[in-house]
Amino acid sequence: MVTVRVPATTANLGSGFDTLGAALSWHSFVTLSAPHDGVVVDIDGEGADSLPRDERNIAVQAIKALMAHVDERQAVPLQCGFQLRLDNRFPLTRGLGSSAAVRVGALVAANALLDPPLPRNVLLALAAQLEGHADNVAAALLGGIAVAVMADDGVRWVRLMPAKAVHLALLVPEEPLPTDQARRVLPSTVPLRDAVFNLSRAALLVAALTTGEFAVLRDAMQDRLHQPYRQQLLPWLPQVFAAALDAGALGVHLSGAGPTVAAWCADAATAATVAQAMWQSLKAHGQHGAWRVVTLDEQGATVTDRS
């Protein structure tokens, strides 16, 4: 039996669309037991009443993809079947990387049973293929902040940690927003000026995080490629952003495809103040939700138990 702790993630960070991701100190757990008679999936927490418990489950699909990638002799413990337990502790379809967490957790757990195990780069490439982009899965696997791009032969990535500690205020609306719906509102092409706008700010964002020049995060997290278009699905977004900045946030962005909003703050007290300000703004628009203060997870997906 192998248990893996895997973090929630926030992707894009505003300007780094489909490229930047950060691991958060909010975790789910994936437990894999093998061999087992057939495939069994148990689910606790989020999605327990709605997620499939058979081969349609994305965790099962991730393990099957891993098995298809290796020699049969490597995957002997998994050949007869396996039992999965998913303990989902952060919300689904809220822009917190729930699908990436499940896929990465399942891959890391299954990889721990292989002899020999696959290197991390291969796991990341498999996870990115399954997810369709690399930002969330890279952060979930590697921890910290990941800069990741998909190449023809894998994923190119750099992991970094900010030069100074940060706290993130998360506003998690009650109403979900499926990723496919949030992607459908995006245009197939964008004006050159908007592409340059994001390129310059994404570069500024990475530089600011690595040097600790957090005074520029407000500008560095601005975006013209996805957030303005997704605003039609989240009409309260500009007011919530303004509330976060007015309350002292260093920078603010839509977390992944949304609807969660992530505001970066210098300390825990400021983050709590910012979170409450965002919550009040959301409430003023007749919407419900919850807030949470987190830090960055430095470890990424981690085997916590093996027996």
TrEMBL record:
Domain of life: Bacteria
UniProt KW keywords: Amino-acid biosynthesis, ATP-binding, Cytoplasm, Kinase, Nucleotide-binding, Threonine biosynthesis, Transferase
Residue stretches making up the GHMP kinase N-terminal domain: 57-144
Entry-linked InterPro entries: GHMP_kinase_C_dom, GHMP_kinase_C_sf, GHMP_kinase_N_dom, Homoserine_kinase, Ribosomal_Su5_D2-typ_SF, Ribsml_uS5_D2-typ_fold_subgr
Positions annotated to bind ATP: 91-101
First-listed, main subcellular location of the protein, grouped into a coarse class: cytoplasm
Pathway the protein acts in: Amino-acid biosynthesis; L-threonine biosynthesis; L-threonine from L-aspartate: step 4/5
GHMP kinase C-terminal domain residues: 207-278
A GO CC annotation given for this chain: cytoplasm
Compartments where found: Cytoplasm
GO biological process: threonine biosynthetic process
EC number: 2.7.1.39
Gene3D superfamilies documented for this protein: 3.30.230.10, GHMP kinase, C-terminal domain
Reaction(s) catalysed by this chain's protein: L-homoserine + ATP = O-phospho-L-homoserine + ADP + H(+)
UniProt key word Amino-acid biosynthesis: yes
Gene Ontology MF annotations: ATP binding; homoserine kinase activity
Keyword DNA repair listed: no
The family this protein is said to belong to: Belongs to the GHMP kinase family. Homoserine kinase subfamily.
Purpose: Catalyzes the ATP-dependent phosphorylation of L-homoserine to L-homoserine phosphate.
Entry protein name: Homoserine kinase
Native organism: Candidatus Fervidibacter japonicus
Gene responsible for this protein: thrB
